[in-house]
Amino acid sequence: MELKFEDFAILLALNQDPFMSMSELARQVNLTEQEAVKRYSFLKTEGVIQDPIAIYNPESLGLERIHVITILPNFSCLEIIEELCTAHPYTHYRTRIFGGNIGMFIQFDIPIGTKRNIQILFDKLLEQRIVTSFEISESSGIRVTSHPDLEKYNSGTSSWSFIWSIWFATFDTDPPPLPTPDESKKNLSEFTPSQAKILRLITANASLTVDDICIKTGQDKDVVLKDYITVKEKFIGSYRFMYDREIFDLTETIIAFGSEVDQHKQEQLYDRVRTDAPPFFLSLDILKDNKLLVWITMSPGQASDFTYAGWQNIPNFKVHVLDTKVQGSMLYYFYPENFDFNKQEWKTSYDYMVEEPLSNIKSFPKIER
Q1: What is the pTM of this model?
Q2: CA 108 to CA 66: how far, in whole Å?
Q3: Residue 307 lies in a domain
Q4: Could you tell me the pLDDT band of residue 186, with boundaries at 50, 70 and 90?
Q5: In the predicted model, what is the mean pLDDT of residues 135-142?
Q6: Which letter does DSSP use for residue 73 in this model?
Q7: Which domain holds residue 84?
Q8: Is there a single domain that holds both residue 84 and residue 135?
Q9: What number is the average pLDDT over the span 331-356?
Q10: HSE on the CB side for 310, CA within 13 Å?
Q11: Cβ contacts of residue 347 below 8 Å, gap of 6+?
Q12: CATH number of the domain that 17 lies in?
């Protein structure tokens, strides 16, 4: 498939807003609107551009996000962990990581107070030597995201006019305090099966219209419209542009963890991303226990510069390269079956969060309780 620089620019621009108008897209990539429509239609027809998805805010649903980094002994164990992720009802995302070891990065969105079940789950995997080691980190709920800025990309030299060492060196010495994290809402008495169905559908395809949802759910349009608005306002944190990296991949995605990061350094990083962000897709997640997570997509050259600058500026800096190809990663849709609408609460039992997922892994050895 023949792809042009304009196609790369279109993909970068749509990372900001997958629902961007064609006139705005044309302005950002320096094309006429007719040319932008033509290139967009080509990319859509060829399957490069895929349907955008909605990303829910876990705290708004009374959930908390935890991150698990696992190191694995061999490739067959990698496949077992992937099977576990698909079997586990609270998996949000998983991806292979590589570098010095085979591993997996997993995000779970779990009911508040159930981290112990995830700990037990991975302890069992450790006992069976399916994982060599694992580390669990909890999000504080404080996050900030930046998007690609094409004004800092030179198509003639295929380079970005951005230097990580300078960016780190110009932190505000007196940044504002971190925002107060949103309290996770434990009262979900008004959460309905209809809202859960809509949340499921738009986390799989955010381009669905109200009419589309009516057809898929068989519900009245007035009901769907009301619930659709509620879901967007209460539960959706952002929308993510999706494209096929197997076809067109000029970027590298990495995650970086820092630990023993004092509050002042956290405030500096948060403020810098918020006020003068790097020109790439970047998500900063302030974690509990003085940790932080940076998730970033950029060119390979920029990735190496970021790694070097990060080692110099973030305590206990660890970097993992993600395998974002089709087989290497998976984002899981919202799973309504996790919520018991009769009791108006999330399912939190040991059996539901530990034993049942393990029992659904065909290759996992059975353990006597």
Answers
A1: 0.90
A2: 5
A3: no
A4: low
A5: 95
A6: S
A7: 56-141+327-359
A8: yes
A9: 96
A10: 22
A11: 89, 111, 338, 339, 340, 353
A12: 1.10.10
